[in-house]
Amino acid sequence: MWVYSYRIVPPQPKRRLGTIRTLLDHEHTAARKDARTWASRLVLERRATRILIVSDSAGQRAVDDRLADEVRRLQATFTLTVPVEISPDSAGVTD
Q1: pTM for the model
Q2: Domain that holds residue 12
């Protein structure tokens, strides 16, 4: 299992995140169909918007590219952390 996150600046209001929510939901559904693990959490903070991702793969190039494109469309910038390996038990992930 791997965990990584996006930090989007400036923080985005909930009403501007519809496409990002759709992308995250789509990836979760696709992973479930393929018997993979992939989950995300969108966190709205005062100084930044964060997307936290737990996955069974260190890199999800296609979804990462789509998310990056959408952040740019919002005229925001982002940083992406390096994926960190975790155990499934520590992530609270169950099958």
Answers
A1: 0.84
A2: 2-87
The rounded distance, in Å, linking the Cα atoms of 48 and 45 is: 5
Domain tally for the chain? 1
Which helix (H) or strand (E) is 85 found in, with range?
Answer: strand 84-85
Comparing C-alpha atoms, which of 61, 55, 17 is closest to residue 34?
A: 55
- Determine, yes or no, domain membership for 94: no
pLDDT tens per residue across span 32-41: 999 999 999 9
Q: Which string of b and e fits 46-66 if b means at least 16 CB within 10 Å?
A: eebbbbebbbeeeebeebeeb
Residues recorded for the chain: 95
Tokens for 17? 């995140």
